[in-house]
Amino acid sequence: MNGLRATGSYSTYSTVILLLVFLQVPLFAQYKNSLEFSPTYSIKMFTADDQLSGTAFGWEMIYAVINDEKPKDWQRMLRVQSIDLIINVQNMRQVNVLTAADEVHPLSLDAFALMAGLNIRLTRLGNSELLFSPAFGVGYLSQTYFTNKNPLVGGHMNFASRAALKLAIPITESISINPGLQVLHYSNAAYRVPNRGLNGLFFNLGLLHQLKPFSNRPDTALRIKKPYPKHSFEFGVAAGRRGIYQSKLGLHRAALYGGYNYRLNQVLAWSTGLDAVYQPTVFDPDDFRRTYQSKASNYEHWRLGAAVGPDIWMGNLALSVKYGYYLHFNSYHNINTYWTAGFKYTVLPWLALQAKVFVHQSEADFVGFGLLLNASKGKGL
């Protein structure tokens, strides 16, 4: 109880501080950015396998960096209105989970997330704008399986993602209200198991204050200036680990990738390739608890799949999503398909850093971190 009181006090104090900062934004009027404060209230909490009851509530603060005078080519193409830094805090102490054994278990947790995202204009509705705001970052959940037997969460540190749809309604030249809906997701990508993930659909009502008023933003017309390679080949290596169920130990993974990319324009590329994953520990029915790896359980060390999907480039950073079919996988659960998602960041014309999650249906296997070698002849972006 003391821990909950401390967490609640911290949340209250931080809310007051952020509200005071928001009210003092005219002090920073020399910057052409904005601040948005948005209370949130859950419409539905859910997971893939369990039923949740109860409600969550909280807030988020968004600091938006607006580059309207000299936007990048990819910002024009995607109609990016701002690049956002987001603090999201949710009180989930009233949320309960109904397990498969019909047991009711209180989550009793608070969720904190720090994310970076984009604010993308979908269309104009009179003087208002309909915006899509995806974001990704890190999250902290106050309770886990190892603290209160939480059946959904295996570790405090998690990946956090958010997708929001909101309507920006101007009230004055510098203030607007932004009602909308957002989906929040927390997961550690099976680094610690259990890892069923925690999701919520929230209503939010934002109040946005532009730190430097402006009314005539330039059109987001397409103006491509920089060259990019049309054809390229990638060769990658990554490593990660998957947790053992109800244990702080883990099982290691290594992943190899070879693929071909066809660049359609400054933002979009089409990519296809082979994924080979090596796991030192194979599934052994006689050692079930230590070697069982849920939908990733493999009787052999290797599995091989072919995947295809888009890359969305934002300067030197790309979001990559692929759906694949296994050419070889001696699966305990007869799994035939998989998908991957991740980011890659070009540091040199021939070298990129990558983070990539492997998923079976809706269940994460592991996240691999590593390098990608690019065999294209272009100079990069």
Summed up:
This protein has 381 residues and is mainly beta. The chain is 9% helix and 56% strand.
- Number of β-strand runs: 19
Q: What structural class should be given to the helix and strand makeup? A: mainly beta
The share of residues in extended strands comes to over 45%
Mean of residue pLDDT? Answer: 88
Instruction: Give the spatial strand order of the biggest sheet.
Output: 1-3-4-7-8-9-10-11
Spans where pLDDT lies below 50 across 5 or more residues: 1-11, 17-31, 218-222
Distance between the termini: 53 Å
Radius of gyration over all CA atoms, rounded: 22 Å
- SSE order, as H and E? HEEEHEEEEEHEEEEEEHEEEEE
Q: Summarize the main sheet.
A: 8 strands, antiparallel, barrel
Structural shape: flat
Helical proportion, percent range: under 10%
Can you count the helices? 4
What does this structure look like?
- The structure is a single chain.
- By secondary structure, the chain is mainly β.
- The protein is built from 4 helices and 19 strands.
- The strands form 3 sheets. The chain has an 8-stranded antiparallel beta barrel with strand order 1-3-4-7-8-9-10-11. It has an 8-stranded antiparallel β-barrel with strand order 12-13-14-15-16-17-18-19. It has a 3-stranded antiparallel beta sheet with strand order 2-5-6, with no helix packed on it.
- The longest helix has 22 residues, at 2-23.
- The chain starts with a helix and ends in a 7-residue tail after the last strand.
